[in-house]
Design a protein that fits this description.
- By secondary structure, the chain is α+β, with helices and mostly antiparallel strands.
- The chain has a four-stranded antiparallel β-sheet, with no helix packed on it. The protein has a three-stranded antiparallel β-sheet with strand order 1-2-5, with no helix packed on it.
- A hairpin with a 4-residue loop joins strand 6 and strand 7.
- The model has no long low-confidence stretch (mean pLDDT 91).
């Protein structure tokens, strides 16, 4: 998918063996949408979306909770095979040998995952921390080095409001995707090197053992602060979507909503999704300024929002002033560009 303009010809090269594929999936493929954690809550129908899955997005969920999937994160096919051996774990890097044991030249994306089994925190079984594409001729072997940095073992400490390193014995997994680990080893980070303080709250006790059963109450307990609440009196802002014009105090804003909603429903009945229409429907107001090639400025968006929030004359006068100022700035900018040439 997302093969692009030349995707068909590229696929023919792969099918007829003129090119040995080496691409890897950047996401896990579930068997059905029902397997997506809290998938029934998206797309959100209100202003706020609550990410109750926390860090367990994609492969982190399927891998940690042992959910079967169709294709794992990092998965990819090749016309040759690769063997991993000779793992050496050092203080700031990992080394191992990879060999092309097939009869075709090819490339492999070696992947490093790191996990901490005995953790004080509720965290994924393992997470991707490094990768490298290696080109090998048939029969060739090479030593691969994947370095560690100050972010490899860090986790966000909500009690200290900073990034910290937890003490413990970390497992390092090397392989071609998140489910196939050809090499494993451990690295001990002792208390002296750790910066994570002992927990005052047991995260494991907050969330249910089956994370898919987590409620908003569980989520609030974990966050330790109240969630933003939906309010019909809340004014539209830059992060509000075009679909939220339904709540606009301005009749003009509600009319725009009715037109777009009618078009959307008509397309749904025909069974033909208009991606451009859906894009507009879900676009925040700030996106208008970014998608109009300078024709609409953020200052103009501010005035449009004033109109939508029920102050027609104030917003209209402000919009005219912002439009004139934006045109002057555009002419000035074009003049500067022309002088450069």
């Amino acid at each position: 998918y997302l093969g692009g303009q030349a995707g068909a010809s590229a696929m023919l090269d792969v099918i007829f063996g003129r090119y040995n594929p080496s691409g890897k999936l950047a996401e896990s493929y579930p068997y059905s949408y029902d397997d997506v954690l809290f998938g029934q809550e998206f797309p959100a129908t209100s202003r706020f979306a609550y990410y109750k899955e926390r860090l367990f997005v994609g492969y982190r969920y399927y891998d940690t909770f042992k959910k079967p999937i169709l294709f794992p994160f990092g998965y990819g096919l090749s016309y040759t095979e690769f063997a991993y051996s000779g793992l050496i774990i050092e203080e700031n890097q990992v080394k191992f040998t990879i060999e092309n044991v097939g009869d075709r030249d090819g490339e492999e994306v070696v992947q490093l995952y790191v996990g901490l089994k005995e953790s004080q925190l509720m965290r994924p079984k393992k997470e991707l921390k490094g990768f490298k594409k290696v080109a090998l001729a048939s029969g060739e072997k090479r030593t691969v080095t994947l370095p560690f940095d100050d972010k490899t073992f860090r986790v966000y400490d909500s009690q200290q409001n900073c990034w910290a390193v937890e003490a413990g014995e970390y497992t390092l997994f090397m392989g071609g995707n998140c489910e196939e680990s050809q090499l494993q080893g451990t690295l001990l980070i002792d208390q002296k090197a750790a910066t994570l303080r002992p927990r005052t709250v047991n995260e494991q006790a907050i969330y249910p053992e089956r994370i898919e059963q987590a409620t908003l109450h569980d989520f609030v307990q974990f966050l330790n602060h109240p969630l933003p609440q939906e309010s019909s009196d809340q004014p539209l802002a830059k992060n509000s979507t075009i679909a939220e014009l339904q709540q606009a105090k301005s009749p003009l804003g509600r009319l725009v909503f009715l037109v777009l909603n009618t078009m959307r429903k008509r397309n749904e009945k025909k069974g033909k999704l208009d991606l451009n229409l859906l894009f507009i429907w879900n676009m925040p107001f700030r996106g208008i300024a970014k998608m109009t090639n300078g024709m609409v400025s953020m200052a103009m968006i501010d005035q449009l929002l004033i109109i939508c929030n029920g102050h027609f004359f104030k917003g209209s006068f402000g919009l005219c002033r912002a439009f004139i100022r934006n045109k002057k700035l555009q002419r000035k900018y074009k003049k500067q560009l022309s002088q450069l040439h």
